[in-house]
């Protein structure tokens, strides 16, 4: 997104050059037509990489991750640990087709995705549980022993 300082539209820019005002208007036109992602992500026409929305929750003993991934089968999902991050990847393949009197409708959505979730605490990679039900992936990561809270007793003197 190009930031343009507010100014009176009836005046030329501060340097007195009408070309700078023309460029600002062209930037605004391109951003409104192609979307903000044209210049920022380097992907034309507003196409951005899709990633599943996440919820991450930390308790005393575990980290819980929920990801909404509708339209993907459980065997198309891949989970892995990379350092102190959970990596969720897979491929989405959806198609819909309807033929009715007067029209033929066909829509396809497909593509791979990868989402890396930095974890707020060290986890034991051997104690990870994952379940996929109704388009939602639930991952339970048990904290490593050194990341568990320790109670310290206070002595009085």
Structure description:
- The chain has helices at residues 18-34, 37-40; strands spanning 54-58, 62-68, 77-82, 85-100, 103-118, 123-133, 136-143.
- It has two domains: 1-48, no CATH class; 54-146, Immunoglobulin-like (Sandwich), CATH 2.60.40.790.
- The longest helix has 17 residues, at 18-34.
- Helix content is 13%, strand content 44%.
- It starts with 17 loop residues before the first helix and ends in a 14-residue tail after the last strand.
- The chain has 157 residues and is mainly beta.
- It is flat, with a radius of gyration of 25 Å.
Task: Give the topology.
Elements lengths: L17 H17 L2 H4 L13 E5 L3 E7 L8 E6 L2 E16 L2 E16 L4 E11 L2 E8 L14
Antiparallel strand pairs: 1-2, 2-7, 3-4, 4-5, 6-7
What key phrases describe this protein's structure?
157 residues; mainly beta; Immunoglobulin-like; 2 domains; four-stranded antiparallel beta sheet; three-stranded antiparallel beta sheet; 13% helix; 44% strand
Rounded to the nearest angstrom, the radius of gyration is: 25 Å
Q: Which of globular, elongated, flat, extended, rod-shaped describes the shape?
A: flat
N- to C-terminal separation? 63 Å
The tally of structural domains comes to 2
| Proportion of beta-strand residues | 35-45%
The CATH architecture category of the largest domain equals Sandwich
The total count of strands amounts to: 7
**What's the CATH class of the largest domain, please?**
Mainly Beta
Q: Tell me the structural class.
A: mainly beta
Widest beta sheet: strand line-up: 1-2-7-6
Number of helices: 2
SSE topology string: HHEEEEEEE
Helix content: 10-25%
User: What is the CATH fold-level name of the largest domain?
Assistant: Immunoglobulin-like
Multimerization state: single chain
Mean pLDDT: 79
Mind describing the biggest β-sheet? Answer: 4 strands, antiparallel
Which stretches of 5+ consecutive residues score pLDDT under 50?
Answer: 37-47
């Amino acid at each position: 997104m190009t930031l343009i300082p507010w100014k009176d539209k009836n005046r030329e820019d501060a340097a007195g050059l009408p070309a700078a005002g023309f460029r600002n208007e062209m930037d605004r036109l391109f951003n409104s037509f192609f979307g903000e992602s044209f210049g920022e992500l380097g992907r034309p026409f507003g196409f951005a990489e899709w990633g599943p929305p996440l919820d991450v929750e930390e308790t005393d003993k575990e980290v819980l991750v929920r990801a909404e991934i509708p339209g993907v089968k459980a065997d198309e999902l891949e989970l892995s640990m990379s350092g102190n991050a959970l990596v969720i990847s897979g491929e989405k393949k959806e198609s819909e087709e309807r033929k009715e009197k007067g029209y033929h409708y066909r829509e396809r959505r497909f593509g791979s995705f990868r989402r890396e979730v930095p974890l707020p605490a060290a986890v034991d990679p051997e104690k990870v549980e994952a379940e996929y039900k109704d388009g939602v992936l639930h991952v339970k990561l048990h904290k490593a022993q050194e990341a568990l809270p320790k109670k310290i007793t206070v002595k009085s003197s």
